[in-house]
Amino acid sequence: MRRLSYTQVETYIQCPQKWYFRYILGWKPKELTPALVFGIAVHQAIADGLKSGSPPRIESLSGIKDPELWMYHLRLGKTLMESFEKMLSECVLKPLWIETSFER
Q1: What pLDDT digit, counting tens, does each position of 2-43 carry?
Q2: For residues 45-51, average pLDDT
Q3: Domain identity same for 20 and 66
Q4: For residue 19, is it within any domain?
Q5: Do residue 51 and residue 66 come from a single domain?
Q6: Which residues contact 76 (CB under 8 A, 6 or more apart)?
Q7: How many domains does the chain have?
Q8: Which domain holds residue 5?
Q9: Helices and strands (DSSP H and E) totals, the chain
Q10: What is the DSSP letter of 62?
Q11: What pTM did the predictor assign?
C-alpha cells in the first residue's frame, strides 16, 4: 500500500494537478525557492542532530542568493534549532525512529 506524507496531502488539497505532476510523474521545480532551501536545511539539521545526539545546526543555505533573504533564513533557522533543542530536552518522549535512506 502506498503511504502519503503530510506534504503530499497538503499539495493535493492545494492543487490536485500539482500533486499529480510532482508525485505521480516525478516532476520537480527547476529552481529551488528560498523557502524550499530553508525547509530542506531545517529538515536535514534536525535529522542529523537526532542521529548524532548533538544540537541541530543549519549547515547550508547556499541555494538562497539574496543576501537579505539568506540572513533572514539563517536567523530564523538558528531560532528554530534552539527551540527544537529546548523542546526535545524537556520532552519525556524521545523519537523512536529517524528517517533513513533506503533502496527500492
Answers
A1: 778 888 898 899 899 999 999 999 988 777 788 888 888 888
A2: 82
A3: no
A4: yes
A5: yes
A6: 38
A7: 2
A8: 1-30
A9: 4, 0
A10: T
A11: 0.59
Residue 61 contacts residue 74 (beta carbons within 8 Å): yes
50 shares a domain with 75: yes
CA neighbor of 100 nearest in space, from 62, 48, 61, 56: 48
At a CB cut-off of 8 Å and minimum separation 6, what does 60 contact? 41, 44
- Are residues 66 and 52 part of one domain? yes
Residues 25 and 46 in one domain: no
On whether both 57 and 12 belong to a single domain, the answer is no
Which residues have a Cβ under 8 Å from the Cβ of 81 and sit 6 or more positions away?
A: 42, 45, 46, 49, 55, 56, 57, 58
Type of residue at 53: G
* Residue 7, CA distances (Å) to 13, 24, 44 in order: 10, 14, 16
Residue 41 burial by CB count (10 A; 0-12/13-18/19+): exposed, middle or buried? buried
* Whether 12 and 51 share a structural domain: no
Long-range contacts at 70-77 (CB < 8 A, ≥ 24 apart): 70/34, 73/34, 73/37, 73/38, 73/41, 76/38, 77/38, 77/41, 77/42, 77/45
